[in-house]
Amino acid sequence: MFKQENYQSYLDILHEELIPALGCTEPISVALGAAIAVKHLNNFPKKIKIQSSGNIIKNAKSVVVPNTGGLKGMQASLLAGAIGGNADLGLEVLSQMSEKDIKKVNELMNTGMVEIEKLDTPATLHTITTVSDDNNVVEVEIINYHDNVIRITKNNQDLLNNDNTASENEQHTDRSILSVDQILDFVEIAKVDDYQDMLELQIKNNMDIANEGLNNDYGINVGRTIINMGHGSIESKIKGMSAAGSDARMGGSVMPVVTNVGSGNNGMACSIPVIVYAKEKNYAHDKMLRALLLSDLITIHVKTGIGRLSCFCGVVVAGCGAAAGMAYLDDCDRSQIKKAITNVLGDLSGMICDGAKESCPSKIASALDAAIIGVALAKENKVFGNGCGIVEDDIEGTIRNVGELGRVGMKGTDETVLEIMTNIRN
Question: Structure pTM?
């Protein structure tokens, strides 16, 4: 039975996580920090420096930054934010770049005005951006969430200081109220007027970019290739449309997506499969919305224990959400929905994140392949059982184990991946 006192908190969690963003959220966060700093400098800087946690460096290294003419990396992100970024637009900071701005970004690349330094910090998402001219210095600090600005200083004087030392999971609505059972209860009782607007935006934005990726050349066209291989089967459309959205986003598309747990790839991978599945099987729109609600909340729940950024590829988590949503659409019972989630976690947990880039669409397809198989097994009441690796009989126990794997167990892997990536020449 759903705890009614948590009803508004569930809606708050959704509002906190389903956020529109233009471009990969790590370089966009970097651009936002630079745009805010330049806004307070009141002048174009002569020097830009960023101190950044390793995960931000990793995720920004190889992905195309929107509205830069195809440039990649931290330097392009910083320059774009400083030159044409609108600090008031949050994670859509680069949406108003002009051709003149893009030209200037390209002209200033590799001029030596940008300095990038790894920040010694326990937070996986943490940047301190400093801009300066001949007379003034501005610093902007972002931590734990991509748009969570906690400090702005100008010439060592505080313009903003939240003095917020809370951990990542303490800064937003308490996620400990989430459980698979409570989420399923909420999905059944939630009033459509309370969540429809944000889900309709998710449907529109994420399907629009999926079609953009399918109909145009981005990356290596993973999505289109999958659909062609599968001759338009429902399975190929689920994987291919989701991958196509990522093709476009990783390839620098200027179309926004609705993110989930700070990631556009997660936002697409947990929503597009449910939308495609519902439309292909002619399910009612209201039922699709509830399945999408379930997918979003399961994705948030499983990812909470892992953390915002990790070496654990987040699309595996989105695959859990998609599996739950598709199982719900097919009228699977509660036990079967849990089995579908467990089967995904028992299959693909541990796929590494080596940054945002053109191979992310393939990883999305792999996660959704696991979701499709997981649902098919669950329909036959088949599930990876207790002691099958990290799997427990209790779904919440399995989710806790996955959280520990991603948050603690893969720390060393994360450091090794970053070391390898920073030693590879662009």
Answer: 0.93
